[in-house]
């Protein structure tokens, strides 16, 4: 099949989850033998290349670099659809998007909407306030129109879709990890000096709801118990980084690496012992709709053979089985994260959980598995 993948608000190459996702899906579809054309904002450096060169990267930036103007590229996208005549148009959902889904009829192409952010509004949403002022709810109507026009909607959680969305068009899929690159035996030089005997790693964008500060506080709690053998490595940058640095300022067994290119992340994870995803769902109002994320960090930890430590909230227990692929803790109980880390000072327990995590990542959370399921769902669609 010939695919056109519209994700012009994403920068490739890039280090964000969205950039990694788009690159992985494009390359995954190409690896299955499909022809893939991808519309993205060009990043710093050349576009990725694939051995068979079956991915063609097309530069297209939202007007003035503003994501909320993405829809204004509709005529340009429609022209590409008309010339390319793809079999399938995939669009990465955005509130002010629709340029791919609504242009697909120029080729009578089947349409897939990737939804990894809420289509419906959470309580207190600014979009709800705007719609209330405008009376006719244009933002809500526009988003619902995009969903209605999609033949398939791929999402980790149907709870963020309009309530009248037919279940028959929803394909619930998790995102994934490159299980060929992320593995326990990367075989590269160790990228950092371990700050302790047992190293817990956090990798992310340091936003409030990512909860990185909870890991710093857990390390402090463990030191108060006399456990200086557990340390933490924080990888990445973002708005909460300085707060986490301040909280960990006097902890000798904590290391901050700063942002790391995604190509080097497998070696960083392989050098750790435990992967921590200490989400604080109460710090992000959209998560009142449910934990709609499909967190790449968890899947990459698992692929690297790390036992995962995460809060036991919402969908997370379905992603990581407590006592099998990691340890889940009650975020309302003081010391829960520290307790989980203390248990994982046991090397035998880490090995057992890490091996199970790796096995499940390969089976369920690889990008290959994701793309195979996606193609299967598309092939089951009726022809136009």
Main features:
single chain; 384 residues; alpha/beta; six-stranded parallel β-sheet
Q: What overall form do the CA principal axes indicate?
A: globular
Give the strand line-up of the largest sheet: 3-2-1-4-5-6-7
Mean pLDDT: 92
Distance between the termini: 15 Å
Biggest sheet details: 7 strands, parallel
How many strand units? 13
Please state the structural category.
alpha/beta
Low-confidence stretches: none
Short description:
This protein has 384 residues and is an alpha/beta fold.
Task: Describe, in plain words, how this protein is organized in 3D.
With 384 residues, this protein is α/β, with parallel strands linked by helices. It contains 12 helices and 13 strands. It has a 7-stranded parallel β-sheet, with helices on both faces. Helix 1 packs across helix 12 (367-379), helix 5 (212-224) packs across helix 10 and helix 8 crosses helix 11. It is globular and about 65 Å long.
Helix and strand arrangement:
Layout: E1 2-12, H1 17-31, E2 35-42, E3 55-59, H2 74-84, E4 88-92, E5 110-114, H3 126-134, H4 138-149, E6 152-155, E7 170-172, E8 198-203, H5 212-224, E9 230-235, H6 241-247, E10 254-258, H7 265-270, E11 274-276, H8 296-303, E12 308-311, H9 316-319, E13 326-329, H10 336-343, H11 347-364, H12 367-379
Parallel strand pairs: 1-2, 1-4, 2-3, 4-5, 5-6, 6-7, 8-9, 8-11, 9-10, 11-12, 12-13
Helix pairs in contact: 1-12, 5-6, 5-10, 8-11
């Amino acid at each position: 099949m010939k695919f056109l993948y519209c994700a012009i608000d994403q920068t490739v190459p890039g280090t964000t989850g969205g950039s990694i996702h788009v690159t992985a899906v494009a390359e995954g579809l190409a690896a299955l033998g499909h022809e893939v054309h991808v519309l993205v904002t060009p990043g710093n450096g050349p576009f990725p290349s694939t051995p068979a060169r079956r991915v063609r990267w097309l530069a297209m930036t939202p007007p003035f670099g503003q994501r909320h103007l993405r829809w204004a590229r509709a005529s340009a996208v429609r022209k590409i659809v008309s010339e390319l005549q793809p079999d399938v148009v995939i669009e990465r959902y955005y509130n002010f998007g629709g340029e791919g889904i609504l242009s697909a009829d120029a080729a009578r192409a089947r349409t897939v909407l990737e939804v990894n952010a809420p289509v419906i509004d959470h309580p207190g949403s600014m979009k709800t306030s705007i719609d209330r002022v405008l009376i006719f709810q244009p933002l809500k109507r526009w988003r619902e129109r995009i969903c209605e026009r999609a033949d398939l909607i791929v999402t980790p959680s149907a709870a963020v879709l309009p309530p009248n969305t037919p279940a028959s068009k929803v394909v619930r899929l998790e995102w994934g990890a490159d299980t060929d690159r992320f593995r326990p035996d990367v075989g590269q030089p160790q990228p950092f000096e371990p700050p302790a005997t047992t190293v817990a790693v956090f990798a992310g964008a340091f936003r409030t709801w990512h909860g990185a500060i909870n890991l710093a506080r857990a390390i402090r709690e463990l030191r108060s118990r006399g456990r200086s053998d557990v340390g933490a490595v924080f990888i990445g940058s973002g708005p909460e980084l300085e707060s986490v640095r301040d909280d960990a300022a006097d902890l000798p067994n904590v290391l901050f690496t700063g942002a790391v290119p995604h190509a080097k992340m497998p070696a960083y994870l392989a050098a750790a012992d435990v992967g921590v995803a200490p989400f604080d769902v109460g710090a992000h109002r959209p998560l009142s709709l449910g934990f709609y994320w499909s967190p790449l960090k968890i899947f990459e930890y698992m692929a690297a053979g790390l036992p995962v430590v995460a809060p036991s909230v919402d969908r997370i227990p379905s992603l990581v089985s407590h006592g099998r692929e990691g340890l889940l803790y009650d975020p309302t109980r003081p010391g829960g994260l520290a307790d989980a880390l203390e248990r994982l000072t046991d090397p035998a327990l880490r090995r057992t959980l890490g091996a199970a995590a790796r096995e499940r990542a390969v089976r369920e959370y690889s990008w290959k598995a994701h793309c195979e399921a996606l193609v299967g769902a598309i092939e089951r669609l009726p022809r136009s």
